[in-house]
Amino acid sequence: MTEEGRRYDLVEVTADVAIRARGSSLAKLYANAAWGMYDLICDTATVVAVRSWEVEAASDDLGGMMVDFLTDLLVLWETEGVLASEVEVDIPEGGPPWHLVARIRGEIFEAGRHELLHDIKAVTYHTLEVRPDEGWAQVLFDI
Predict the structure, then answer these.
(1) How many CB atoms lie within 10 A of CB 86?
(2) Model-level pTM greater than 0.85?
(3) Is the pLDDT score of 51 beyond 70?
(4) In CATH terms, is domain 7-114 a member of 3.55.10.10?
């Protein structure tokens, strides 16, 4: 896949794990950051779209909204076992304040069908950068 076609890249760090999400729009950037997190949790190719969930996040800054959004998805994973096979994000223009609505399609984790890859404990602000003008965002996850 060409560089501009990738959703995200892994970023090497001494502890934890980070991704650099890519996106030609703000909504795609946030959706691809979600994909990066879900792909760290498990092989998303094994997840089937059988249910839907909706998540909203808002903040005065794009970094805060990224952390809040991914944290809300992580809470869904930790409390209900939600894994994604589809992620759609809508972000109206005109912020700040910023607001997003995400629709997640997927299923609940099933041992034996879904192999867990990383135990993500938190989405952090450490090294966080959201650069929609350059088409990327970097997020560090505490594992």
Answers:
(1) 14
(2) yes
(3) yes
(4) yes
